[in-house]
């Protein structure tokens, strides 16, 4: 196999849960309300570091779509799918977009977030 070159993302991003490869910027999330067979999914305008599978027709909750499965380019794990074409005019907005299943991705936590709400020291009340 050849050398693998990954696109690094700057800013808050989502990563492959299995190998930590950067996949998409948080700013590229279009919708967090998608559902799939395995639960919740997010619709993205753009993703990186993925490969796509064979084009196929798939009957989904929103109708019949032409889709391609999306895989992590590093570990090969299936992450979701991309919409190639929609047969329903009301679903055309999905064309060219990517759905990543929520349980297959992890949101990167930035260092700016504080786990203790910005308070330093002990969480015990002062008993002086």
From TrEMBL:
InterPro entries: Yippee, Yippee/Mis18/Cereblon, Yippee_fam. Keywords: Metal-binding, Zinc. Residues 12-109 form the Yippee domain. The keyword Metal-binding applies. Pfam families: Yippee-Mis18. GO terms for molecular function: metal ion binding. It comes from the Eukaryota. Belongs to the yippee family. This is Protein yippee-like. It comes from Linum trigynum. The lineage of its organism: Eukaryota, Viridiplantae, Streptophyta, Embryophyta, Tracheophyta.
């Amino acid at each position: 196999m050849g050398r693998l070159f990954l696109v690094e993302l700057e800013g808050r991003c989502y990563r492959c849960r299995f190998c930590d490869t950067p996949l998409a910027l948080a700013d590229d999330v279009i919708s967090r309300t998608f559902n799939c067979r395995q639960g919740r999914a997010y619709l993205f305008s753009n993703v990186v570091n993925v490969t796509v599978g064979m084009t196929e027709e798939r009957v989904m909750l929103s109708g019949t779509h032409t889709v391609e499965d999306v895989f992590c380019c590093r570990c090969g794990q299936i992450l979701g799918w991309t919409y190639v074409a929609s047969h329903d005019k009301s679903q055309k907005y999905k064309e060219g977009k990517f759905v990543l299943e929520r349980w297959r991705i992890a949101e990167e936590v930035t260092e700016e977030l504080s786990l203790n709400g910005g308070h330093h020291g002990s969480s015990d009340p002062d008993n002086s």
